[in-house]
Amino acid sequence: MHDRAKEIADTWRRIRRPLQWPMEDFRRARVRSRGFDGYRFARTHGRGVVGFVVGFALREGVVPVAVEPPEAVAYVFVEPAGSALHRELVSRASSPVRRLVRASADLDMPYAMLKDGPVVALRHRSMRAVPPELFPLVASDFFLMSYRPFWTSGFLERIRRPRRRSR
Question: How many domains does the chain have?
Answer without folding.
Answer: 1
